[in-house]
Specification:
This protein has 356 residues and is of the alpha+beta class. The protein is 51% helix and 17% strand. Helix 2 packs antiparallel against helix 3.
Length: 356
């Protein structure tokens, strides 16, 4: 064919550009013909203006169609005898108009069925593709869920390790403080010994004074030896991570650790019975020894007893309570109480009120 094919835009207006009618394509229905334009194949329509393609309508990819000769015609053109009153023609219709009327009702139905079949196949392909994508998404979701679960387990282990590291750091800090106190005590012994030596050299005639200094020095050495043994035992227990069951060594260190505090002796039995963790209690007592206003507290009795607002952790729960009141000479009285229930705590408050 030497004609050209006109292009009609979606609005029904012809474009200035036309394409050469030098190659045709057989559409997927095997009957209709099409022309290639801008990467797609559009059905050919024979009109009074000649052969046209309409953009915006149905189109096909090359792999869906078969190449045909340039003079190919529809596979089963309807005979002219079938042009009846059902296909009205205006008087004096041209040959092209008559050729355009060849597409009878049966032919149009076949074309419609073929187009519907093609559309159904494309929908089926898209549905299969969507199903594959859904399966991939579910697989990716399961993989991510497994990764999140593994990361949660690693996070729990990391947090536990961090808590252990903090406890070890506290133990090392406590050991360092104890060693420092021991060093200070040894220096005191050395100073007393030097003083005794000076006294011996400067006051050789005062035998009684020298004897008293030697006796005092011996007693200080014995006390320092006992304290050193207790400190070494405490350091060994701390290094092993073991919690000592007896608190006598701890009471012996009270004047050194908290010189202002006067802790009731029965309070350490409360600690030994109910506490597996003493770091929170040590922090509160240290704050009270430094400045009793450093701990937020409130009054519970008329005779000056106050309760620390923070509930002290014991390693099992947070039922340990700390009560304190000021004493003369900037001392602080401290009582520890383990709360079983509200009624027992109120009875303990009344006991403090009575001064028992």
């Amino acid at each position: 064919m030497t004609e050209t094919i006109k292009i009609i835009d979606p609005a029904g207006k012809p474009l200035a550009k036309e394409i050469a009618d030098d190659a045709r394509w057989r559409l997927p229905d095997g009957v209709s013909l099409g022309a290639f334009y801008s990467g797609r194949i559009y059905p050919l329509v024979n009109t009074t203006q000649g052969w046209v393609i309409r953009l915006g309508g149905q189109s096909y990819a090359k792999k869906q169609c078969q190449a045909a000769t340039s003079d190919a015609a529809p596979a089963v053109p309807p005979p002219r005898a079938q042009v009846t009153a059902a296909t009205p023609l205006r008087p004096g219709a041209s040959v092209r108009e008559i050729e355009g009327a060849w597409l009878t009702t049966d032919e149009q139905a076949r074309m419609t069925r073929a187009a519907a079949t093609t559309q159904h196949a494309r929908v089926a392909d898209e549905l299969a593709h969507l199903r594959n994508e859904l399966a991939d998404a579910r697989s990716a979701r399961d993989t991510l869920a497994a990764q999140v679960k593994r990361l949660d387990a690693e996070m729990i282990a990391l947090r536990q390790s961090l808590r252990d590291d903090r406890r070890l750091h506290k133990c090392e800090s406590t050991n360092t403080d104890l060693r420092g106190q021991l060093t200070h005590a040894q220096r005191l012994v050395a100073t007393a010994q030097h003083t005794a030596q000076q006294a011996t050299a400067g006051q050789a005639s005062s035998e009684a004074r020298v004897t008293a200094l030697k006796t005092e020095l011996t007693q200080q050495r014995q006390a320092m030896t006992a304290l050193e043994q207790r400190l070494k035992g405490a350091l060994a227990d701390t290094a092993k991570g073991a919690r000592p069951e007896a608190w006598a060594w701890f009471q012996a260190l009270l004047p050194v650790l908290w010189p202002r505090l006067q802790v009731a002796p029965e309070s350490w039995q409360v600690v030994a019975t109910h506490c597996t963790l003493i770091e929170p209690l040590i922090r509160v007592l240290t704050a009270l020894d430094g400045d009793d206003s450093a701990q937020s507290s409130y009054s519970i009795t008329a005779n000056g007893w106050r309760e620390v607002q923070a509930h002290i952790a014991t390693g099992r729960d947070d039922r340990l309570r700390v009560y304190w009141r000021p004493l003369p000479e900037q001392r602080v009285a401290v009582v520890l109480y383990y709360k079983q229930d509200d009624e027992g705590q109120q009875a303990f408050h009344r006991q403090l009120e009575r001064g028992a």
